[in-house]
């Protein structure tokens, strides 16, 4: 078994993206590699870290010049020695972790870790693993990266390699393999944009983090030109999404507004031009996708290097003012898109869409070359809970305990706080056996008056395909990593003006989307046609902190009892005694929207761990039980991922050292 530990931090741009992409690449290359991504700042400093990160993003957004000053302060060599910050707690945590997990290779995507590791092994023997630093900066390389020596430095491009050589890093320790963008950039069949002829269409992708005053004007000006087609991605800002959708409605299909999306690789690869800030991950992804970029914001520090990367390689432009953005868009497509073609040709030369796979292969090779085997392995101390849980992981198909399930979970595709992958990690780390993701799909015929406003909190029909793709991808990862089943579902919201005319229906374990505007019996028929379960959600009166009651199904039992597979007997903290009194088939679910909702009612099923077996038990109303889920409250503060605004660098990885699941389960 090859064990790789990847260390990251949520400060700045690109570190988490690099860590997550390397993890994906390693897992796709090798089934025997055990990979773990950790943010020790999050584990060791908890809420302090969250505060620091918020202060960081606040500074970057509102006072970039001030951040520039702080950045140069951080660039002082003393930082990594802990003279500015006390890194003692982090160092102890890392020491404990290395002892416990004995990785073959440790990868650092954040500058401070190499120095912490050097200090850990200062007094005694050689460190028993290879240390690889993956530098996420380009050209302006923060000197903290080079504070302590690593065995190998991976750099994104030749210019950065030259900077390292000039700072006396031996050439044989430098690998120019590219920035580890998502492996999806090279695993997809080449979806290139069509040739932009004289009159377009020019497909422009606009990444927006904040609704600045002048934004409306720029968008309007861009849309004035008939040839321009705009796709706008606003990240997690649902309100901005709603406002822009409203504003751009009159341009019809020429303007599309997306919320948070997992499809950035596809989007970049199918657009002619990208407009966005010069974040490390975004610039590198644009280069991988061969999509010329106009940087409309450059924060002093790392981003200056990213902007120089665009200019030095002649693959895009930097626009200091909104007016310049418009000017560059015009220039790019002038005279049969001459400038655009030149950018694109240059991109062809420097693009490395397979960088994550290349680095991952190198890491796997390093696992073998590592200096190991001197003496017997160090005793790893395990707590009783670790032992039982690794035994269970050994044979996922024949569990000795009841399966812990939750069939009602929302993500940020509707009004949930976490992304699909964050939900998978959140439940996976808690040893759940089966979950179903059920984002809201509102009936567009019923969105009348005030209710229309709710629509921004539900899946938009044009994202349904993406929603199914993303959950399918996460389903495979969840099984590999946690032996957890992930089902795709939808919560059909059929809201009327009163509680008696409102119903919420879960479709559990769907293969393909179902449209929103069918009536209830038709929706149920479509769910059944796919082998899915139709479940009445919160069918009775709730004492709920939000939302109104949905009693339609309950009040029309004679019609729906024969059609519905199960009724929620409990939803989060609410219990519905009448469901039990009528002996209806039942389920208990979280109706999860945010981490604290994990403390709620759940379903237990005693059967083989497969979708078919679980659904069979539910339909027959056999071997089903419910449980009120509780866990160690103190671990919550570490395990609450804080969503961050950036569109692409959105992977928040945090973990507690006293986890339920061992880092590297026994093979
Ligand atoms: Zn609901
Ligand atoms: Zn719900």
Radius of gyration: 26 Å
Q: Residue-averaged pLDDT, rounded? A: 81
Largest sheet: 10 strands, mixed
Estimate what percentage of residues fall within beta strands: 15-25%
Q: N- to C-terminal separation?
A: 7 Å
Helical residues, percent: 25-40%
Low-confidence stretches: 69-85, 371-399, 634-667
Coarse structural class: alpha/beta
- Which small compounds were modeled alongside the protein? zinc ion
Quick one: overall form? globular
Just name the CATH architecture of the largest domain. Alpha-Beta Barrel
The count of β-strands is: 22
For the structure shown, list the relevant keywords.
six-stranded parallel sheet; disordered C terminus; ten-stranded mixed sheet; globular; 667 residues; 38% helix; binds zinc ion; TIM Barrel; alpha/beta
What does this structure look like?
- With 667 residues, the protein is of the alpha/beta class.
- The chain folds into three domains: 2-183 and 355-374, Glycogen Phosphorylase B (Rossmann fold); 186-350, Rossmann fold (3-Layer(aba) Sandwich); 396-662, TIM Barrel (Alpha-Beta Barrel), CATH 3.20.20.140.
- The protein has 23 helices and 22 strands.
- The N and C termini lie close together (7 Å).
- The site of one zinc ion has 5 residues, from loops.
- Residues 491, 504, 537-538 line the site of one zinc ion.
